[in-house]
Amino acid sequence: MASHLLTAIVFVPLAGAVACALAPSARASRALALAVSGVVLALAVWLVAAFEPGAGMQFVERARWIPQIGAEYHLGVDGISLPMLALSALLTLLAVVASWNVSERPKTYFALLMLLAVGMNGVFVALDFVLFYVFWELVLVPMYFLIAWWGGPRRQYASIKFFLYTLFGSVFMLVGIIALYLHPAGGTLDITALAGRGFPAQFQMWAFAAFFLGFAVKVPVFPLHTWLPDAHVEAPTAASVLLAGILLKMGTYGFIRVTLPILPEASRAWAPAVAALAAVSIVYGAALAFAQKDLKKLVAYSSVSHMGFVMLGIAAGTAEGISGAVAVMFSHGVITGMLFLLVGMVYERTHTRMIEDVSGLSVQTPVAGGLLAFASFASLGLPGLSGFVGEFLSLLGAWKSELVPAGWVVVSAVGVLLAAAYMLSVVQRVVLGEPSKAVAGISDLSLREVGVLVPLVALTLVVGVWWDSLLRYVAPVAAELAKRAVGS
Amino acid sequence: MTIGAPAGAAQFMALSAVLFSLGLYGALSRKNAVMVLMSLELMANAVNLNLVSLTRFVDPAAMTGQFFAVFSMVVSAAEIGLGLALVLAIYRQKKTVELEAMEELKG
Amino acid sequence: MPETVNGIAFFLLAFATIGGAVMMLSTRNVVHAAFWLLETMLATAGLYLLLDAEFLALVQVLVYAGAVSVLVLFTIMLTLRRREDAVRPFEPGWGGMALAALFGGAMLVAISRAQLPAAKLPEAPPTVADFGRVLFTQWAVPFEIASLVLLVALVGAVWWSGGDRR
Amino acid sequence: MGYVALIPLLPALSFAVLAPLPRAWRNWLVPVSVAAVVASLGLSVAAFAATWPGGHEAHAQTAFEAVFAHIGGAELAFRLVVDPVSALMALVVTLVGTAVQVYSVGYMHREERIGWYFAALSLFTAAMLTLVLADNFLQLYMAWEVMGLCSYLLIGFWHQQPGPRAASMKAFLTTRVGDVGFALGLLVMYANVGSFDFAAVLHEHAWQPAAATAVALLLLFGAMGKSAQLPLHVWLPDAMAGPTPASALIHAATMVAAGVYLVGRAMPIFEASGVALTVTLIVGALTALVGGLLAAVQHDVKKVLAYSTISQLGYMFVALGAGGFVAGMYHLVTHAFFKSLLFLGAGVIIHAAHTQDMREMGGLAKHMPVTTAAFGAGALALAGVPPMAGFFSKDEILTVLVHEHQYAALAIALAAAFVTAFYVARLFFRVFTGPPQTEHLKEAHVEMLAPMVVLAAITAVVGFAGPALGEFLGHEIPWPEPGVAALSVGVAAAGLAAGWWVYGRRTVVLNTRPLKERFGVLYTALSLKLYFDLTYDNFVVKPYARLAAWLARFDLGVIDGVVNGAGRLWQALSAAGSWFDTRAVDGAVNGAAAAVVASGERVRAIQVGRVQAYQALMFGAIVLVMLLLVVKGV
Fold this sequence. Notes:
The structure holds four protein chains of four kinds. By secondary structure, chain A is mainly alpha-helical. Chain A contains 19 helices and two strands. Chain A is globular. Chain B has helices at 9-29, 33-58, 64-94. Chain B has one domain (10-98): Helix Hairpins, CATH 1.10.287.3510. In chain B, 73% of the residues lie in helices and 0% in strands. Chain D folds into three domains: 1-135, no CATH class; 159-527, no CATH class; 530-567. In chain D, strand 1 (61-71) and strand 2 form a beta hairpin. By secondary structure, chain D is mainly alpha-helical. Chain D has a two-stranded antiparallel ribbon with strand order 1-2. The chains are: A mainly alpha, B mainly alpha, C mainly alpha, D mainly alpha. Chains in contact: A-D, B-C, B-D, C-D. At the B-D interface, helix 1 of B face helix 28 of D.
């Protein structure tokens, strides 16, 4: 079993999807989804327990798949995909629990969630480009329907925009994949084998540009970010959580898995530009978050800002920077998941997401208010909570790196201040103060809702205090990447 | 080009292009039907100016552009007459001259 | 006749033309806009004079400044129920502006690259008398057709605006 | 010395116990918090006693170590280390912390959320102790930020009122401006040294002057934010919106002094730079004077004390800037005692008079003798009158200035000392003498008085321990020096006399209008807080909000507009070959088919039926063709 653990993690949800769709009743479908995602989480925990920290792929599975083009069924995890995989399994379970009361076509809804899990888990373990691309695109479909059928008032517009935008990006990625395959130095679709092939510099520059477009849309990097606020605002809570928690990370994961090892020279050459975009994303996202009146939109723009730190760390290419990037990926998934869940829970009660309409949560609903304040402080990077780990390491790595101009690091550091500005303005207006009309009389979080949030709170604390709980998996791979690929 | 330097065909063409663009902008962006028609006049005017200036600088003896301009003016006069009549007719029916109200052709 | 025209006069008239157009588009009062259109038309007539097209200048003044402006003003007055309706909020129309700017920019680039054929300049500019002679000989048929068009348009306009039919 | 680990752990545990509980339980468990800090005090005394014999020669002893991250070849560790400075600081923090917590039991007993208040105090105490026991800059920074959180929570304790809510945010953000500098300093430090440990950074690394200047100035910037130095001082007066005992602990004795502690710890870097020392001196001197002047025009008792804190912290920076590490640390210690004493006294006064405005107070001395005596002791210490502690520490700072020939700074420091004595007299005479303006004046309860009496006793005594403490910390200059002491006492006496002349002689109603008129412009400028707040509000805060709003429109209009425009263009192109039958595939589950359906729906949208839309489409196409031609150069 252990040798097929990854296959199980990826494809158990597929069976779950079929089962959920065919389930006799909504309750059965819901129970099945819970059971399946619980099993997947258990498998992921087993995987984490069995994983030996260190560089290199583990739990590798290989099988013939499409011999005509040399595409293989090739799976494996290393210290960078492991945390993402575990996060994906956890957030899927929480998403199922958070959508417990979905009343509209619940069977389809849970089936789509399970299908989404297949794609998300698959992307993080696929080591073959065709497989990677298939999982990558597979993610789009259920997410499109989740937004388009269960979304808010402008869901049609948002879902189409999300779909077309990311499709647009992934077409360029496909071009890049084909270019690598057809190039004489390449000739294979094996992601690990392509590393260190020594493609010519000129070719690397073009291939990087293609992959960059594909991944940057997903991250998203300024100025390709405008699908994100629309999609987030219109998506149902669970979809927002998975969108911010996992889907965005697919883009940055692509940078770490594909461009850094396979196109090292181009990564070096493009690093100043990527760092500039990252710094602009950080500050721009923070400023925009500050200007928002819709709570969910604010969180969405804060994601743009936080993902900028990931890009900064990746651009740096140092061990600290890459570790920081992965740490931000992980903690942003946890913290933003928490924020979206809380915003959704508040919205269910007050039926408004407008910041001006909601205030005094901590008086009326101390648990919700307290957790929202906690998540806000985690998000603004308070040391001792996980948000700080990644941001600090990214900045550290970027400053140490010779590829990133110091000015952009300073700009990014200012982003930390701006993050405090927008998050505190949320705390000040929403959590504190006298309860507003919309808040008066609402009930505090139920046990189920607290149960959804507690694992995330715990993770935030554990990673924030004991960095090695995450970094012991990430750091060896990051060091290897930095040494081999970027040569620092 | 300096201000006050003798003007040739290029200057007139540039002037006419600017005038046309202004008219185009008005025709695209105004919601009032009368304003749109006035912008169309601006565009027609730019075309006429082009015709007259080109004939002046290329072959003044033939005066071809001037004749064209005469006919163009006739047609645009007819057009604005009809157009305004239509506006009046629509106004009578809809009590508005906003173009947004006129979308019977929506597919 | 010279290859160019007086630059100062051109500049002033061009300024008046474009300025009038800009004012027409930027004013929020429809009545004001009509008067700015009139100003543009008059300035264009001046340009025609500068281009030695006296007859056209006359026609411009008569047709545009006279007839069309009056028509526009009448329509405005007939479609206004209250005096305040004349003033409307400014509509920037960014999309239209961008498109028009692109169009104008492309035109200007094209003009800057354009090569005109060599000019055949006579000693003296043709007179209004020459103009009339040619119009009623070589261009007689088109002239008649144009008259017909105008007539049809007139009838059509009366038909459409005739109030009591419906 | 393993027990040292318990010093910060006990308050942290009491926070961990109190914070997650429901309100009623929390309130009931307040004694846990007090017990924890008392226990910490006991352990700190033990640690201090254990360190004392060796004096500054004693080696730093690691009491606890846990590596929490391995990164890029470096180990980031959480360590609790005892050396003379940290032992002394831990003692001061737990002593003041205990006094404040005991006092708070009385002061806050009517509050509904007293449990939360104590939880936040405990977390603060734990963070401050972690900070002073740290042996690396990263841990110091992390504790520093957590303290900022606690400060935020406590300033905004009465968050239902808009004032404290705004003040808490202002405090957090203003200090975070400094923290960005601190964080950048850490980055530069790591890039140069590859470690955050005090041993590596301060002693083993040979600093280049340029790098040292960069690091030192960035750290100084962080310290300026936390210690409310010019021009980042604006948050501290507003922070007085919080509960008074919390102000005593956080905004007078400990947290704001953390900046001084940081600069003191990083002294070797500052000395390697030289420039940074001068900057520290200038910042400190300006702050000392300006803070004192501003304190002299405030009417709110707490704000007088807040500006006084700013001014005194400036004094400490002056000492550090002149190279007087021990002088700075010593003033930090004495200031912690007498300023927290003054704040606790202010709390009693406010409770008794039901106002914070000095103009509505008077004649408290008759009814509240104990408070008057304790407050008077603190006031004399602040003014620098022997034998109070403040005299000794201030005197040492002046001695350092004389010794280092910093005469300009000395002049400013003396001017600040004069102003300090003046506003101390103003405060004391306005509140305690003259006709009473409040009825039913009563002395406070014992749990509030006892901490004050203890602190007053310490204030009166600790000055004589000065030489020994200086020896313990390893001081550089022998003191006190009689000449400097005479000068200092003279200035203080002059200031007090001036204060008495204006405010102390009153019989019925005080009239200060002539004084205000004589200093018209200066008084106006001072009462508007020297325009700092106005400047920040009008040139930083509001422009940022406007910029953000503008960017939001830009994002929606331009960036998103381009995207949507591209989308529409694409639709227009696909309309050209509009072969989809939109209804035939409706309801298909297939993803691609659904996308086609949806895009077909969207394509239909261009048949809007509006003339201008068609016109735009037509000209759009024309423009495209033209652009193509232009690009191809036809």
